[in-house]
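Run NAD-dependent protein deacetylase through structure prediction, thanks.
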Amino acid sequence: MNQIEQLNQWIRESNRIVFFGGAGVSTESHIPDFRSDNGLYKKKYPYPAETMLSHTFFVNHPKEFFDFYFNQMIYEDAVPNKAHYALSKLEQAGKLKAIVTQNIDGLHQKAGSLNVLELHGSVLRNYCTRCGKFFTLEETIKLRDQDGIPRCDVDGQIIKPDVVLYEEGLDQNILYQAIDQISKADLLIVGGTSLVVYPAAGLIQYFRGKHLVLINKEVTPMDAQADLVIHEPIGEVLDQAVKNL
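Sure, done. The structure for NAD-dependent protein deacetylase is below.
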């Protein structure tokens, strides 16, 4: 039995599957990841990407923050890939109970998934830092001033993306939901993540189910603890694994 067949068998045998994913899930939708050779952290900017995506930088250098953000973090034309659609199919089949994602692109929802726990927020949601009014991504883009800074149409204050920046804590409610789902899963599929960013990477420790599967092009610190490790493109792997369910 090859790796895909093994994964397919475990999916068939499982009733509470949880998927935990990172940037590698969206690279096949032409959204760059962070740490690969073509990733966001390798791009040349006046400051490191981690600095430009920090809360302090957002507050002190909003012009430079939004220049970086809109040029490097927003991909309006991105569409779901095979991985997103395979997971949506698993949910519709009643087997996948939750997607826990580090991604902020909203592609899981575009593919039809309903129970998506976004650990780091979403670029599709934005809010005024004073009055709290919410804006869509399209509205936020249209409300940029001459410096490229989006401002609220009610009070003129800066509109902040509803994403977790460096120095900011995760939404505790989302985090607790993710822990709850992972702790109840009988099959945990982890894909497209290097498993080096905490606290997100630490969520795997809550898994008590039968099988842990890792799908990632590169080696991760958790490979030795997994029941199955697949170093292949995640879209093709999941597409094949959910066929004939």
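The radius of gyration is 19 Å.
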